[in-house]
Fold this protein.
Amino acid sequence: MRFDILTVHPELLESPFNYSIIKRAVEKGIAEIGILNIRDFSKDKHKKTDDYAFGGGAGMVMTIQPIADAVEHLLEQRNYDEIIYLTPDGIQFNQGIANNLSTKRNLMLICGHYKGIDQRIRDKYVSMEISIGDYVLTGGELAAAVVVDSVVRIIPGAISDETSALSDSFQDNLLSAPVYSRPSEFKGMKVPEILLSGNTAAIEKWRMEESLRRTKERRPDLL
């Protein structure tokens, strides 16, 4: 699976993709991640990618020419299942969307800045607009990293134990049950006895009950 990310700050994406599961997935050939600097396509002599908004008002707008040329450059190389713009007014990202995107072959992600990108880019090229939450970030790079991370980790082979990803929170519209590890007792705090019993059926029943309880308490909207 390939991700191509358009950004004016490629350095912001270096660290998130150079560690842990994402790095291993790339090394295995499970995922490819390309990062394209929008400034490289600017025809302005100072490589500007922003300008004042028509109609006035505070804030700058990312101009159409560099983004359009960058998108066209990628479209000449391959077809994309989705061209995604990361924006606060997009659809709320969730596990279901991540699952769906993990079945695709090629994704392009556009990172905005300032007051956003020229609307004509959204009208002509963008097929999906995603928000990772009801708040505003400095730019779309962190949001793009979140989307790539959540998608890559559920691609078969990215995680050595694939059942681990299937039991994550939100996979079945439930939050995960509490988890514990060694030692079984620490400073008077004990692991629930059921988890030490070796009774697989009873343990799974306990986990489901705890998952339901936690979801009801914290996210009843999921039930």
